Structures
1.
Amino acid sequence: MAAAADHDVPMISMRAVNKHFGDLHVLKDIDLEVRRGEVIVVLGPSGSGKSTLCRTINRLEPIDSGTITIDGQELPAEGRQLAELRSDVGMVFQSFNLFAHKTILDNVALAPTKVRKTPKERARTEAMALLERVGVANQADKYPAQLSGGQQQRVAIARSLAMNPKVMLFDEPTSALDPEMINEVLAVMSALADGGMTMLVITHEMGFARRAADRVVFMSDGAIVEDAPPEEFFSRPKTDRAKDFLGKILNH
Ligand SMILES: Nc1ncnc2c1ncn2[C@@H]1O[C@H](COP(=O)(O)OP(=O)(O)OP(=O)(O)O)[C@@H](O)[C@H]1O
Ligand SMILES: [Mg+2]
């Protein structure tokens, strides 16, 4: 498709996106463009709509109005096409959600064999290479419960990558981890970013935001109120809401 090959087409485009949960207006006229290879860190107080924003991008949450495109293609409402487009968008959550009764290798090889019909042997070879990449290849035959939280989260990242996504979304991927495991997960994410992956990351890790983000998007009450490079956002936030947020998070 012409649009897909055009490098000027944003990887993610949200235009005038609105969403309500009942009476609650959770996404208010969201306009957001993420270019190919860009890393966006989304910040904002609890309840500001960060997770909802993330979930609308692959239609885990339907929107009320507006448009969302991935690599130039609008998300279909349902059906096979949605499944295909959704697999272009990898997502990693706070909880790892690995299949408990499957080995680490099988966790990573499963979706490519089931969804993409990749032959089993090839899927396993590719899964092994991904486990290598996230540094847990030596755990391939274990079950999730036998791994540390940090290792499990790296497997979850490998599992998403196995579908060859165009975009990776992360919703607080390190929030459930013990402090000593946070860095190993952030290191995998930084390597992905350096490798050119387009990423949207919700995180409270300000060091990661400063180092890895091309832009920081700050949300408050369902709206994007700031969108700036990290050095600008952290040193010269424009709104009182961002100043207040940074005051709390940086002095804490
Ligand atoms: N399924 C749902 N049904 C009803 N309300 C919801 C639902 N999911 C989220 N909300 C509400 O929508 C608002 C935005 O929630 P969201 O989870 O997107 O915030 P967040 O910025 O990710 O917060 P946190 O930092 O706590 O994760 C909140 O007021 C929340 O209570
Ligand atoms: Mg959230």
Note: The mean pLDDT is 93.
2.
Amino acid sequence: MVGFRVPQVARRRAGCVQVRCGVLIDEYQRSKAYKNIFSAGVCVAIPPVEATPVPTGAPKTGYMIETMVSAIVHNIKDELAGQPVTTKATWNAICLADMGDTGAAFVALPQIPPRNVNWFKKGKWVHLAKIAFEKYFMRKMKNGTPEPIYEKYVLKALGIARLIR
Ligand SMILES: Cc1cc2nc3c(=O)[nH]c(=O)nc-3n(C[C@H](O)[C@H](O)[C@H](O)COP(=O)(O)OP(=O)(O)OC[C@H]3O[C@@H](n4cnc5c(N)ncnc54)[C@H](O)[C@@H]3O)c2cc1C
């Protein structure tokens, strides 16, 4: 993945971010410089997985980011209750990447190597699965149920969880 620059508003806070790579965080998704700032998604600083001829960043995908956000919600709740933060995100990844007339699906647990699970398949079925997933995802969001109980148990049976607690 190309190396994105993080928004200027984050870059202005000295000690909070690396110039290119994003917000430096601890294992609880908190900025290392400002513990009351949490960070999730593409703005998190993750070191490049390997040296490449052109600058690249570590891949970040939707489910992986959902695990980060879930951890942040638990940790903010704990902070507001005056408790120490304890929740870590798994950074697990399940991805359906649509490429038009074909697509690629992968499961990477966790997304950043070294991995416990590394599964990849390519084919037109991924394109169709992505269309079905989009409809399922939008329905979940409209109903306000981002993680239905049946989804949680199916993923758990496959060894895919959002949080380390
Ligand atoms: C081409 C492409 C294909 C991808 N395909 C897949 C896929 O198939 N499956 C998958 O899981 N992941 C995929 N990803 C990755 C996934 O889309 C991203 O990892 C994810 O969207 C990042 O989420 P985020 O919330 O961190 O950032 P974003 O989704 O980029 O959200 C950041 C938001 O912040 C806003 N913003 C920026 N600066 C400011 C500012 N100063 N003030 C206010 N708002 C601001 C932006 O407008 C944006 O809406 C793909 C990414 C790309 C680029």
Note: Strands lie at 17-18, 22-23, 88-89, 93-98, 103-109, 117-122, 163-164.
